[in-house]
Design brief:
There is one protein chain. By secondary structure, the protein is α/β, with parallel strands linked by helices. 47% of the residues lie in helices and 11% in strands. Strands 5-2-1-6-7 form a five-stranded parallel beta sheet, sandwiched between helices. It has a three-stranded mixed beta sheet with strand order 4-3-9, sandwiched between helices. Strand 3 and strand 4 form a beta hairpin. The radius of gyration is 23 Å and the shape is globular.
């Protein structure tokens, strides 16, 4: 079958949207670290609209910091790929051309640094997941004992970490008299711009105090909140896209039609007019960020844990179960007081349920559960502690923590294996096995500092113990029903 590429664009069916600009005339204004599905379904899609409107100075380059898989799939396609938007029976497809040069950092770190040092590049953005920042999510401090951080401090010319590349590129630009780029985190972290800036300054100070002062004084790190559900691409998805295109696309991306991008408007060297596609620029991202992290991401973590334990593979199947649906609603009710006044929590959560019900996405619980121990501190533990400090009852949020602990026990309730997919937990030598008594299990997890910091408050730990005991006795869905009815 013919492969999607620049020479074959004219062979696409007329109904398929495609770039309306001369890709050869693009200048690279954005370099993105983390060439994954989310960037291609969200940021690159909005940038595509700007390019189609004539803003050719905002072409994108992108880099993979680990694997060459995405580059290897897209390079024969000249960086072109298909974005398919699905909502139940409705589907639209578009070929995106925003991404030009692609780098694989481990193969040629010098080439990536040269790209980041190009004066045309005015924004370096990141989707590298929580662990990609090599910082403690609970405290925000850079992990100076991290092996890759230590390597980057000793060998700055050949970085391994995302922050190491950003730091070295900024140093090279400073030495050349080139203005610094804006560094834009697009990851699900509270105050992601502040979090990034703190870790970056600490990294720079460890390397060179003068560079640390330069970054603290002159480098902008705006915060933003991003939202679009982007499940992993499957073989069936590739076959569907090939049928629609009449040609092969080795790595299309699929997503829901809904998206949200709220961005702190602080770009000293300029930015694309992403607002033309619906992005919102604000002075303070925090209220929007808290809403999304706690109501959407927190619900996703709960759905993933409960769904995996109950043997329900996808979000749509999980939320179709009345006990899981009721648990999510009850968690939202507990979280509502932590959301800023003026935000329509009822309207937002109603839209979330409709999005979760979108079976066409095939969003797998196992995908959401990846690196869960890095996600829980900001999604569930932080608001739980905030509510606890105000004396508010939180039976379903503690149930959510118990569900996560149960999901770390290696086997679901059907007897199938339930892999962790969480390196931080996998390397924890104190992790209790499935046969350990409930009291000891909760005591061990409550002492796991990356999630709970100094520990879990005694009354919250007691609530988690009760929930986990019920899960072991009655099963997770019956345990949820008991707690919702007040029986536990």
């Amino acid at each position: 079958m013919t492969r999607l590429s620049r020479p074959t664009l004219d062979q696409l069916p007329k109904a398929v949207a495609r770039p309306r600009y001369d890709r050869a005339a693009l200048r690279t204004g954005i370099l993105h670290l983390g060439l994954g599905a989310f960037c291609r379904a969200h940021q690159a899609a909005l940038t595509e609209d700007c390019l189609n409107a004539g803003a050719t100075e905002w072409g994108m380059a992108a880099a993979s910091l680990r694997s060459s898989d995405t580059r290897d799939a897209l390079a024969p396609q000249d960086g072109l790929y298909t974005l398919a938007l699905r909502e139940n029976e409705n589907q639209s497809i578009q070929v995106i051309g925003a991404i030009g040069p692609m780098f694989v950092a481990p193969q040629n770190p010098g080439a990536l640094l040269a790209g980041m040092s190009d004066p045309d590049v005015r924004i370096v953005s990141l989707t590298v997941t929580e662990k990609g920042y090599t910082a403690d999510v609970a405290t925000g401090d850079l992990r100076l004992d991290n092996r890759d951080v230590q390597h980057d401090l000793a060998h700055p010319e050949a970085p391994r970490t995302a922050l190491g590349f950003v730091l070295r590129a900024l140093a090279l630009r400073r030495a050349a008299g080139t203005p610094p780029f804006t560094v834009l985190s697009c990851d699900n972290l509270p105050g992601n711009g502040h979090f990034l800036r703190r870790a970056l300054v600490q990294f720079a100070e460890a390397a060179d105090p003068a560079l640390g002062r330069f970054i603290a004084d002159d480098v902008a790190c705006p915060s933003c909140m991003v939202d679009r559900i982007v499940p992993a691409t499957t073989g069936a998805d590739r076959a569907m896209v090939a049928h629609r295109l009449g040609m092969q696309d080795a790595w299309p991306v699929l997503a829901e039609p809904f998206f949200q991008w709220v961005i702190e408007d602080r770009f000293p060297s300029g930015r694309p007019e992403w607002e033309r596609s619906g992005a919102e620029f604000v002075a303070d991202v925090a209220p929007h960020e808290a809403m999304k992290l706690r109501l959407l991401n927190g619900a996703h973590s709960t759905i993933a844990a409960m769904g995996r334990v109950a043997g329900l593979a996808t979000v749509a199947k999980a939320v179709a179960d009345p006990a899981i649906r009721a648990t999510i609603r009850a968690c939202w009710a507990e979280l509502a007081p932590t959301i800023a006044p003026g935000i329509d929590v009822a309207g937002y959560t109603a839209r979330l349920l409709a999005r979760f019900d979108n079976a066409a996405l095939n969003h797998r619980c196992a995908q959401i559960a990846t690196d869960a121990s890095l996600k829980l501190p900001q999604r569930i533990v932080a608001p739980l502690r905030e509510l606890h400090s105000k004396g508010r009852a939180t039976p379903m949020l503690t149930f959510s923590l118990a569900a996560w602990i149960r999901s770390c026990q290696g086997q679901d309730e059907t007897g199938a294996a339930m892999p962790l997919c969480d390196p931080q937990l996998e390397t924890w030598t104190g992790r209790p096995g499935p046969g350990v008594p409930v009291d000891q299990t909760v005591r061990a997890f409550a002492g796991f500092a990356p999630v709970f910091g100094p520990g879990l408050e005694p009354d919250l730990a007691a609530s988690v113990r009760e929930a986990l005991a019920d899960m072991r006795t009655f099963g997770i869905l019956s345990a949820a029903r008991r707690r919702l009815s007040g029986a536990s």
